Amino acid sequence: MIPGFSHRRQFKDLSEQEVLALAISSEEDDGRIYSWYAQRLRQDYPQSAKLFDEMAAEEDEHRVRLIEEYRRRFGDVIPLIRREHVAGFYQRRPVWLVGNLGLERIRDEAARMEMEARDFYLNAAKQTRDAGTRKLLGDLAAAESGHEATWQNLLQEYLPPSARKAEDLEAHREFVLTWVQPGLAGLMDGSVSTLAPIFAAAFATGNTWETFLVGLAASIGAGISMGFTEAASDDGTISGRGSPLKRGIASGVMTAVGGLGHALPYLIPDFWTATTIAMIIVFIELWAIAWVQNRYMETPFWRAALQVVLGGSLVFASGILIGSA
After folding, report:
1. What is the SS3 assignment for 94?
2. Is the pLDDT of residue 209 over 90?
3. Confidence class of residue 159 from pLDDT cuts 50, 70 and 90?
4. In sequence order, what E strands does 104-189 have?
5. Which of 128, 307, 321, 323 is most exposed, with minimal Cβ within 10 Å?
């Protein structure tokens, strides 16, 4: 047997008692997830938090109905069976992964959860012969199917267009300040600051491997430096720029990526082939920076392009001149 899978049961092999126990634990888990989303959003997005509070309350109501049905048929002792105990059963993504992806991603995840719950109740209803249990599971499947309408009603109640627009604008602002701005600064620093040492090493040595090592060291060193600098510069409490860890990661990773983009071509043994490809990548990097500035920072594209390309060209030329000296 494959390690880690030998303990799992097939859904079709579960008894009716186990199906009800699984439904109870699933509703409990979903209610806790919605409550966590509400807590996560309450400070910055209070209207969306109310929406998830309502959904958590509805999941709790479903759980109570399932427990009552279980007691009617099987007594008070409910066996522990969870989603991860059933092979091929749908899994919930860890809340910290979804929560870090922003407001719209959390809303999409909630919609996906409701569809998966509906499919579960439809399949569970097919496996029971008890009329009362079948009716309850069918009712819950219908409730989950009707959650699209419920979701829209809750959106209208707690998130009218004006409130939703305000929350979406705040989410966009948080995304820009936490990820885009430090990532862009890192990409600019990594792409531009490593041009001189990499191309100076290339034209000074004519050796692609040595040039690659210089580029690798410069990129990783710059990434570590920028990451720590960004994380230590502002804890986000007053400025509202978000988690210093997230900003540090964005800045550090993009700095390293910016430098490695034109260092990696020097893994090619032929000097002029590697240098030509590196130059093309530099051109792409600089235009990508200008596009991000225009897209997220609302900088006019041609002004951003002029600033980035001019600055990058000067650094690039200085590297070639020093390396050729």
Report:
1. coil
2. yes
3. low
4. none
5. 321
The number of residues in the chain equals 325
Geometric angle at alpha carbon 62, from 14 and 112, rounded to 5°:
80
Q: pLDDT (tens digit, 9 = 90+) per residue, 277-319?
A: 998 998 888 888 888 888 777 677 777 777 777 777 777 777 7
Q: Which of 114, 74, 91, 112 is nearest to 8 (CA)?
A: 91
Q: Return the percent helix, strand and coil in the chain, to nearest 5.
A: 80, 0, 20
Which residues make Cβ contacts (< 8 Å) with residue 57, sequence separation at least 6? 31
Give the pLDDT mean for 127-134. Answer: 83
- Rounded Cα distance between 270 and 126, Å, is 66
Q: Which residue has the tokens 């966590």?
A: 36
Instruction: Please report, to the nearest 10 degrees, the dihedral formed by the alpha carbons of residues 69, 71, 73, 74 taken in order.
Output: 140
pLDDT for 274: 93
Check: CB of residue 301 under 8 Å from CB of residue 181: no
Report pTM: 0.54
CA angle 9, 76, 34 (to 5 degrees): 65
* Whole-angstrom distance, CA of residue 190 vs CA of residue 186: 6
